[in-house]
């Protein structure tokens, strides 16, 4: 029996790794490359030798894959073999002696001459909880075995992989795929902080409303709305003990927290796509303040891009209205008083006027997209 768990990442290393992977994936222009990058991420996240992403085709009743390190294209019967069993039962598996497992179908090894020894399989599920395929990693490097922690790390990536693939199939258009990617990445970011999921949806709607009130045309308002969920993507690289600290942050922790703006920018800036470029600007400038006392660059007035000014207001509006690990939700009256108080200080005065003049429309969004679970 093989032993040892040297090939593990600490949670900080894991975050850095996911961060780097997503930065790379954001630059990709082509679906085939995208699949390969996802498989590589799956493989490297747990130090496996190979990763295969299996996709369930319910109509043809097969599991198929395009991406397999060293293998070109394969199909297997669903519900047969180890992968089939994991998919059928919707359960993740760790198998450290594959040939001793009666479910194992060695015909693929026989065809390829590759010896499978250890294996992990995680069924991929879509947002509705339906199984869409599986991520399979084979042979932990250095002759080690897979352990529970590997499974957890791979699980973290699996929703991301599943949703990315789903969007690839649903939406042939690269631009549309990109939109989905943005959404998924923001979910990955959000998962890490102990906040309920509707924050990004509300920020997106406040953003769109503000943009339109400000006079932006429908197309640009929609672009900004779709980019806004990414504003805090850089938080993915902030350690848990800071991100989810119940109390206030000390000076050092605060310095680290503030880096999320520039980190988000550096993740997205490499893209040549309009949507990701917009998201990069938003991530970079959503904590600048109109009076020039914000971060990271202390931009002032209209030096702050209108995208940054709009999302800044939308983000704070929602943050004040929400309970966070470090603070309670504010009363409605206090929120609006605060926004007025900060007119020309934190926020663009024109935007504050638009907010106050259209208060009911913002409250309608808040009430419609209330967090389902109230902690
Ligand atoms: P966040 O919780 O999403 O808050 C976004 C922004 O809303 C904050 O940006 C701030 O401008 C505003 N905001 C939120 N809560 C309050 C509040 O109680 N009073 C006032 N005046 N403004 C508030 P900021 O300050 O740049 O913080 C950025 C992020 O840093 C926050 O995002 C949160 O994740 C984190 N953070 C800020 N302060 C603390 C803290 O005391 N403890 C912890 N654990 N995290 C904090
Ligand atoms: C199996 O699931 O039993 C075989 C599939 C593979 O080894 O790739
Ligand atoms: C997010 O949901 O993107 C992070 C939450 C926040 O803005 O603090
Ligand atoms: Fe932020
Ligand atoms: Fe936010």
Question: What are the secondary-structure elements, in order, as H or E?
Answer: HHEEEHEHEEHHHHHHHHHHH
Give the integer mean of the pLDDT values: 83
Distinct bound molecules: ligand C2E, succinic acid, fe (iii) ion
Backbone structural class: alpha+beta
* Shape by Cα distribution: elongated
Distance between the termini: 46 Å
Taking all Cα atoms into account, the compactness measure Rg is: 23 Å
- Tell me the fraction of residues in β-strands, as a range: 5-15%
CATH architecture descriptor of the largest domain: Orthogonal Bundle
> For the record, what is the CATH homologous superfamily label of the largest domain?
Hypothetical protein af1432
Q: Trace the largest sheet across and list its strands.
A: 3-2-1-6-5-4
Query: What's the tally of helices?
Result: 15
Query: Can you count the beta strands?
Result: 6
Main sheet overview = 6 strands, antiparallel
Specify the CATH class of the largest domain.
Mainly Alpha
Q: Please, how many domains? A: 2
Low-confidence blocks of residues: none
Quick structural gist:
With 375 residues, the protein is α+β, with helices and mostly antiparallel strands. Helices cover 52% and strands 10% of the residues.
Task: Give structural notes.
- This protein folds into two domains: 160 residues, Beta-Lactamase; 171 residues, Orthogonal Bundle (Hypothetical protein af1432), CATH 1.10.3210.10.
- The longest helix is centred in the middle third of the chain and has 23 residues.
- A six-stranded antiparallel sheet has the order 3-2-1-6-5-4, with helices on both faces.
- The chain contains 15 helices and six strands.
- The protein has 375 residues and is of the alpha+beta class.
- The chain binds ligand C2E, succinic acid (SIN) (2 copies) and fe (iii) ion (2 copies).
- One succinic acid binds next to α6 and α7.
């Amino acid at each position: 029996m093989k032993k040892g768990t040297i090939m593990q990442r600490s949670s900080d290393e894991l975050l850095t790794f996911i961060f780097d992977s997503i930065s790379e994936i954001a630059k990709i222009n082509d679906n085939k490359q995208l699949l390969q990058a996802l498989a590589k991420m799956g493989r490297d996240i747990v130090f496996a030798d190979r990763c295969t992403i299996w996709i369930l085709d319910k109509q043809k009743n097969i599991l198929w894959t395009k991406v397999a390190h060293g293998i070109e294209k394969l199909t297997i019967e669903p519900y047969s073999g180890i992968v089939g069993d994991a998919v059928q039962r919707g359960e993740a598996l760790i198998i450290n002696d594959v040939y001793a497992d009666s479910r194992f179908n060695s015909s693929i090894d026989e065809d390829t001459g590759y010896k499978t020894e250890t294996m992990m399989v995680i069924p991929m599920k879509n947002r509705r909880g339906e199984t869409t395929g599986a991520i399979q990693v084979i042979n932990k490097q250095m002759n080690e075995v897979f352990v529970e922690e590997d499974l957890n790390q791979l699980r973290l990536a699996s929703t991301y992989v599943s949703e990315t693939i789903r969007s690839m199939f649903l939406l042939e258009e690269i631009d549309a795929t990109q939109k989905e990617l943005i959404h998924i990445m923001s979910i990955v970011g959000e998962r890490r902080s102990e906040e309920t999921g509707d924050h990004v949806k509300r920020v997106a709607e406040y953003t769109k409303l503000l943009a339109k009130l400000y006079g932006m045309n429908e197309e640009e308002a929609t672009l900004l709305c779709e980019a806004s969920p990414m504003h805090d993507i850089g938080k993915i690289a902030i350690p848990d003990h800071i991100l989810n600290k119940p109390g206030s942050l000390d000076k050092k922790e605060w310095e680290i927290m503030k880096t999320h703006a520039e980190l988000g920018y550096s993740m997205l800036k490499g893209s040549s796509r309009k949507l990701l470029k917009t998201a990069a600007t938003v991530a970079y400038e959503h904590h600048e303040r109109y009076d020039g006392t914000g971060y990271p660059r202390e931009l002032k007035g209209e030096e702050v891009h209108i995208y940054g000014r709009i999302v800044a207001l939308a983000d704070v509006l929602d943050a004040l209205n929400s309970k966070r690990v470090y603070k309670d939700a504010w009363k409605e009256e206090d929120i609006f008083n605060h926004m007025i108080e900060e007119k020309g200080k934190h926020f663009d005065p024109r935007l504050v006027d638009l907010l106050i003049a259209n208060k009911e429309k913002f409250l309608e969004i808040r009430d419609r997209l209330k967090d389902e679970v109230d902690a």
